[in-house]
Design goal:
Blueprint: H1 4-18, H2 21-27, H3 30-51, H4 57-71, H5 79-88, H6 95-102, H7 104-113, H8 116-139, E1 149-150, H9 154-179, H10 188-209, H11 211-215, E2 219-220, H12 224-229, H13 234-237, H14 247-269, H15 276-297, H16 313-326, H17 330-346
Helix pairs in contact: 1-3, 1-6, 2-15, 3-4, 3-7, 3-8, 3-9, 4-8, 8-9, 9-10, 10-14, 10-15, 14-15, 14-17, 15-16, 15-17
Amino acid sequence: MPNPNRAFLLGPLLKGVSRSFYLTLRILPAGMRDPVGLAYLLARAADTIADTSLIPPAQRLDLLLALRQRVNGADDGGTLAKRLAVEVAGQQSVSDEKVLLESIGPALDVLAQLSATDRTAVQGIVTTLTEGMEFDLQTFPDERSGQVAALPALSDLDRYTYLVAGCVGEFWTTMTDAHLPGTMQAPVDTMLRRGVRFGKALQMVNVLRDCGKDLRIGRCYLPTDVLDRHGLTVQLLLDPSNSQRARPALHELLRIALDHFREAMAYTFALPRTAIRLRLACLWPILIGLETLALLVANDAWLDPTRVIKINRNSVYRVLWRSTALVMSDTALRNWMDDLVARIERSLR
């Protein structure tokens, strides 16, 4: 008998909270949609908990850990669902996120209905993602404290990008291998490694694009060792007029991001040309990510939180249309992405 909760959760609610990622979810092959969509919903609920600044960080962390335990099968007699409804849902200004938090019980019911392989994979990705959120809450001060902290070292940034995004590339690869065995034209371990780099590439876009905004909530993801190398401090980054002075640090991190994107491109080209849905699901975030980096590197006030770095809707539609038209042409796609990378690299000289 069909589960009405499943239809709502993985239909209207997923569309309401996933924004642009819903496009990627809808293009996925049918067997992958439910586990990937449910993983997204559970991760989004966790992210909403972690980002609700009206709740003290210690309380947020406690709720995150409780959610992680429930996802991994612990029975709390409905305590978590009640706590989320009382402590977090009422703090949400976005109605879909409020509904999501109030729907944790049904979401966990859907998780229990997945195949054992899919359930284990979803539990694994939600566990790792919540570890990334735990890392944030334990590393940075309360958003309302007026204090700012930076990650100590580049290795900490690498670990962070794995916890919040690189692990998604692993999960994606695991789902592809489980539901479309034999599709990938490279060994699974190679694809898992490339998948991690794929996720890190996308998170590096977020880190660099949102630097000015993150600084205002006490978080500097630009590591101290990178800042020291270029004669910078967190306090200097807080002044948007230092955007030009801070460009060497930006350029160093952009080069790392581009190296990750090259692995993401290799991941995509290891999918057969006939795997159109999978290819498009990979091409869209790569192309949108590279377009965003091109805007970022051209922005002379990249540290100014009021100067939003985002490609417009028409540009997104252009990417969707053009990539769909070229999806089976490795040469055309490679030329397009290589041109974007070259445009960014010219600005780094």
